Structures are given as C-alpha cells and as structure tokens.
Write the structure tokens for this entry.
Amino acid sequence: MIKFKNLFFILILFSACKDKAENQEPNQVHPNIVLIYADDLGYGDLSAYGGEISTPNIDKLAENGLKHTNAYATSSICTPSRFSMLTGEYSWRQIGSGVAAGNDGALIKPGTTTLQGVLQNAGYSTAIVGKWHLGLGNENGPDWNGKITPGPLEVGFDYAFMIPATGDRVPTVFVENHQIVNLDPEDPIKVSYKEKLGDNPTGKENPELLKMDYSHGHNQSIVNGISRIGYQTGGESALWKDEDFADIFVEKSAEFMEDNSSSPFFLFFSAHDIHVPRAPHQRFVGKSGKGLRGDAILQLDWTVGAIVKKLEDLGVRENTLIIVSSDNGPVTDDGYKDMSDEFLGNHKPAGNLSGGKYSVLEAGTKIPLIVNWPGVVRPNTVSEALISQVDFLRSFASLTGIEVAIKNAPDSFDLHKALLGEHLRGRESLVQMGTSNGFSFIKNNYKYIVPNNASPEITWGPDVKTGFSQEDQLFNLKIDPTESNNIAKQKPDILDSLKKEYKRIRDS
Ligand code: NG6
Ligand code: CA
C-alpha cells in the first residue's frame, strides 16, 4: 500500500489507475476507508457546523480536512437513506419510503451491487459495526434462534456486528455475522410486532418499571428499564444494555481494524448515537449541559476520537480516509421523554434550516459531511459542491479502480474529486424523500417540493414541520435557505423545468 503525500501525486496516480481499471487490473489507490455514520445527527449539531455542544474530535477531522456544506442524505429517515447509500440507487425505486420493522426480511437482495461489495472486489476487508436497519433473513423475516441469513454478509460485508434494526425496536440483542450473540439455546428468543408474547412487562401496563418514560409509541416490551417498539420474550442472556453500545462498537471496530491493518479495510461504523432511546454511558450523562441528546452527541464525539486513536496506534492513520456523516436530519422528542427540547438552550440541531427528520424541508436531508485523508484532502477547506451519499458507491469504485456496469447503481455518480475537494463540480440535481411518500427535487439552487396530501405538521408525535402542501412549492435555496418564500407563482418557467426534470428521473 502506498502512502500519498500530496495531491499532485495522487492526480497522476488517478490517471494511471484508470487505465489499469479498464484492463481489469488492480490499481494502487487503496486507502483504508472508515465511514462513521451517525443517526439523526442534524446539520447544526456539531460544533464544526456552528453547534453549541463541543465536538472536538470530529471538529479536528474537519479542521484537518474538508467540510461539505451542500451534502445530502437521500431521505429524511433511516432505512431509505442507508439503502440508497449502500446500493447507489434511490430507495424509492425498490423499497419505498418506510422505516423497516425489526423483523423485516433483508431489503438489499444478494447479488445487488453495493458499496461494500465494490470495495471487496477491490481487495478490501469490509465490516459493518453498529446499526443495520435494512432487514435480515428471507421475506418472512429472520430465524432469530438459528442462522440469520441473508444479511450483511450476503451483500458484501466480511464481518458484521450489529443492532439488527434500531435501539428502540426489538429484538434488543446484538447479531454477530449470522447469529445472536450470547443466546442460550435453552432460552430461545421470540419476537412479534403484532401481539404481546408471554407475561413480560410492557411500558403500557407497567410504567412504574421504566427508567425513561415514553411520549409516543414505544410502550411495548421493557428491556433495561426502557420500553420499545415490538414484543419479545426469552433470550435473557443475550439482552443488551443501551449504555454499553458505544464502548462495545468501538471495541469490535478496533478488533476488526487490528486484524486487517496490513491490508486495506473498509469499516462502516454505523453509530446508534444520537437516535432514541438516548441512554449514553454514565460517564457522559450530564456533561453537555444540554440533556441526554447533547450527552449522546458527546458520546458520538468520544467514539470518533477512539477510532482515530486506534488508527494511530496501528500506524495506519496516514493512509486512512475518514468520512463522518449522518443518515437524516435531527429530531428532539422522538418518542421518549428525554427532555431534549427543554435542555436545548441556544443549540440549534438543524442550524438555520427548516424542518427536520421526516420532513422534505432542508433539515430533513441536508447533513454534515466531513472528509479527512492526511496528505490528500487539503486541511481547513469547505466545499459547496452538491453531493449525495448515493454517490459514495461510484466515487469509491472510481477511487479504487473498480468498474461498475451502467445498469447497476443507477443513481450514483462518480464524484470522488468533489468528495475529496479537488474541485467544486458536484451533481446537477438531487431527488430527496421524506416520510409519507413526500418528495422534493433540487437543481441549480432551486427546490421544488412535490404536492402531497399529508399534514404540514407531523400528527403522530414529534414536533416537526414536514413541508408538505397540496400546492406546488418552489424555493430559491441560495437566498431563502429556510424555505420561507414560495415563489412557484412568480417563477413558472423554473417551476415547469424542475417538474419536468423531476418526472424524467422518477420515470427513468
Ligand atoms: C418511528 C419511531 C421513532 C424512530 C423512527 C425510525 C414511533 C412513534 N416513532 O416510527 O422513534 O424509531 O421510527 O427512525 O414509534 S430512523 O432514524 O431509524 O428512521
Ligand atoms: Ca436515522
């Protein structure tokens, strides 16, 4: 493996590598890649992006690297964002706009071209550690007590240690590769999203057992004093403790990096933070002064610092490309009474954007994106190039010299130069998706929000503006980043051209 010391050198190598790739030969541009993907972290949540909660470890990556200010997840909820990022295909083409249930079957079918599969083909060892939330098992869902397959290992990962769905959904156990960790065969686990199982307490019936009360949903099985979505019984020896997530994920990642430090590796570190339930380790509780949501941000920052330290200890930091981003925008109360609104103070999770998780407004999908690669990505740079996480697949393929057939990863563009800050030419346009099948389309700094019958406010819980309207909406993001002034009637030509272009992409 070669360590690159400057941009000029890498540019020469890129052209050399391209020729080799066309001849199907391996090239030499194989940095380790660590993709740290936070959950529900907003555009304004990091101090590098103006947040009030100090995130020194993440900020250091931005200071010594590139901060993107016009980068997007494809959706304002988790499952579709992750699907698009890992497959290079807008999720609405395949799986729609919903959040996967905890017992859904695998949503990425074996044989699909994936980001991790591309890197595997380029000779990388690949791992996911953390939240999966893309379904496991066949269409009837996984056999939790047996071999859990298909899953990440069937779509390009060599190693997986994961929360199968989310921290707030059953089963509340870790799955390592094909099996639940520490499961006692004498005490099998049962999972249902339809009916209560056995006599285990639920949040609804036994609120006195809760250490964190729920505000909406989340009133079914209680595990570790927190009630969840869904019912489960059994599997006592395998149940997780939420407070240990960060430590365990760092430990598993460290083991993976250590085992693979002599060859290139790709680590998809898919953090639980700062999703609900927010139950960070005791050492972070009360430390942010901004409540548990702020404390979870501190825990995320600690996690990033611990991963960077491990890379340094292994002597591979110089040759590692680190990316920090988030799967969707922020939300405060997302179903638990964790006082996240009450403690916010001047901290603005969405920065100056409107909306948040679930919405089609900018805060739903515009996310932090930090890219750091010593000696290659210039320190202290900011990029306004329009870029989407769906572009990671072709960008990394190009970087590592792997060709991806045109029919695969159809929505992904090779933007590795924009991603690394070599120039500002990003994608031309972008389709965004919110909850309730809500869509919007961005081109040339104009944003068209497609008419939708759903409510302008979320009606079932979180206090979030969705951005939905039955009318056409058009905003000039350059002068109106808060999407306050609908200019659809003043700019009929622009509206018409965005509508046509959006329709062409949706129908393609
Ligand atoms: C919602 C949950 C929310 C969160 C979300 C998925 C309720 C009332 N709300 O249905 O708490 O789990 O799904 O979040 O149940 S995501 O980041 O994984 O998309
Ligand atoms: Ca999320």
User: Anything to note?
Assistant: Residues 1-27 have pLDDT under 50 and may be disordered. The CA atoms of residues 65 and 377 lie 6 Å apart.
